[in-house]
Amino acid sequence: MPYSTEDQALALAGVFQATRLVEDIAHKGRFDEDDMAASLESLFQTSPDSVEAVYGNAANMRTGLRFVRDLLFKDAAVIKSDSLRYGLALLHLERKLAKRSDMMELIGRKLDAARTQREHFELMHENIIANLADIYLQSISTFGTRIHVVGERTHVENKANTARIRACLLAGIRSAMLWRQTGGSRWQLVWSRKKLGQAADRLLHS
Question: CA 104 to CA 177: how far, in whole Å?
Fold first, then answer.
């Protein structure tokens, strides 16, 4: 099916909303629960009718959309952020994952088990988050390229925060996959920068 520039901007927003959460947890030890819920919920959407349906609606990705808009309009603070570094690393890791059918199958099986677990626990329950973190640890973390998360030692080494960070990175990988499926690529960020930034801005004001 054909995808719009808005679809691409929304998928990219999913990547960077996840990485903004990672940066907040690592540096501040706190996070926006609504943002995290929207990001983690995307992992359980296997047959969505649209890109927007992956996230419930575009409004759930406002943090990510603002980041994409500011990034593509060359906001200096965004360009220097850890969130950007993590996001670019996720896009790179997803391309590696796409070539590993065995790893994709492993993630699929484990997400099926997590869906069963959700019959007993709320999405943000520590057991669900720990399960998602373990999926990331057993799959993406095994690749040669790993994401080094920096922040306040007290926050980064906290067990619950470590699980939240890994769960968010897994959600970021899911959005990176969606970005590729909608036709997104490294060149899109160069040649279609203005169009993508404008699409993100339209979604923010829709």
Answer: 11
H-type helices in 42-158, by residue range? 51-54, 62-72, 76-79, 82-98, 101-117, 126-138, 153-156
Cα(44)–Cα(13) distance, integer angstroms: 18
Q: How confident is the model at residue 167 (pLDDT cuts 50, 70, 90)?
A: very high
Contact 17, 61 (CB under 8 A): yes
SS3 category, 57: coil
Asked if residue 135 has pLDDT above 90, the reply is: yes
What phi and psi, each to the nearest 5 degrees, are found at residue 80?
-90, 0
Distance CA 37, CA 41 (A): 6
Residue 1 pLDDT > 70: no
Q: What is the CATH number assigned to the segment(s) 5-204?
A: 1.10.3890.10
Answer whether 0.90 is exceeded by the pTM.
Answer: yes
User: Between vectors from CA 130 to CA 129 and to CA 133, what angle results, nearest 5°?
Assistant: 85
Is residue 155 a contact partner of residue 19, using CB atoms and an 8 Å limit?
Answer: no
| Per-residue burial over 59-89, b = 16 or more CB atoms within 10 Å of its CB, e = otherwise | ebbbbbbbbbbbbbeeeeebeebbbbbbbbb
User: Alpha-carbon Rg of the chain, whole angstroms?
Assistant: 16
